Amino acid sequence: MSVSNATTGPASSLRFGIAIVVLALGAIAGAVFAAHGEIDGWRWLHWVCKPLTTVLILWMAWRAEPAVSERYRRWIAAGMLCSLVGDVFLMLPHDAFVAGLVSFLLAHLCFIAALLGDSRFAARPWGMLACVAYGVFNLWALWPSLPVPLHLPVVVYVLVLASMGGQAVVRERQHASDELATSAHWSMMGALIFMLSDTLLAWDRFRFVIPLSTVWVLVTYYTAMWCLARSVRGSR
């Protein structure tokens, strides 16, 4: 049996999925139960499990067979690699929010590049306009509480994130009834859930405290990443 078949068989996929869920739960539990401002066992659990979860999801995307295209696979994997770097920056003991923001900005640019491989930018504009309007509304609502040095970086990030979500919707509509329909559906789900995850993170950080925010942010983040990884595999 080839390595590719071994990593994509039903039993292997089930074990792989269980490993992702277990690591994601470890990352969430470590963040929730870690003592504030201290480096304890729970904190270490979070530090270990958070990047490892992303690594496994990246590996899932890289080994998916049959792939929609090698180009699509490479750009999705590049986006997940940038997301992995962002994961590390955002969990450091000192504040590296801007570095994390830049890492995820690059990730979304990679995801946009993947989506543009088989869809034209804003070919069906209503989905794009809806996502941009959603981003602008959140930006308007958060603006009074954003630190001045973050104004420009956050504006750029929101526009890129909204464009990524909008292009995923465009791609889903464009391929709704052809051989790319399954991939397009998963990529749209991943992009929109990614927007939701970042919305929760931003509101909790800059507007008001969301109860159990870490749980909701990480659950939506890993769900979004899993959907994007799943979008690499085409229909047999």
Rg estimate, integer Å? 18 Å
Average pLDDT number: 91
Number of discrete helical segments: 9
Question: Which word captures the global form?
Answer: globular
Low-pLDDT parts are 1-7
User: Main β-sheet, in a few words?
Assistant: none
Whole-Å distance between the termini? 19 Å
Approximately how much helix is present in the residues? over 70%
How many strand units?
Answer: 0
Please state roughly what percent of the residues sit in beta strands, choosing from under 5%, 5-15%, 15-25%, 25-35%, 35-45% or over 45%. under 5%
Going by helix content, strand content and strand pairing, the class is mainly alpha
Order of helices and strands: HHHHHHHHH
Descriptive labels:
236 residues, mainly alpha, 9 helices, disordered N terminus
Short description:
This protein is an all-alpha fold and 236 residues long. The protein has helices at 3-8, 10-33, 41-63, 70-91, 97-115, 125-142, 151-174, 181-206, 213-230.
What does the model show?
The structure is a single chain. With 236 residues, the chain is mainly α. The protein contains nine helices and no strands. The longest helix has 26 residues, at 181-206. It is globular and about 50 Å long.
Blueprint of the fold:
Blueprint: H1 3-8, H2 10-33, H3 41-63, H4 70-91, H5 97-115, H6 125-142, H7 151-174, H8 181-206, H9 213-230
Helix pairs in contact: 2-3, 2-9, 3-4, 3-9, 4-5, 5-7, 6-7, 7-8, 8-9
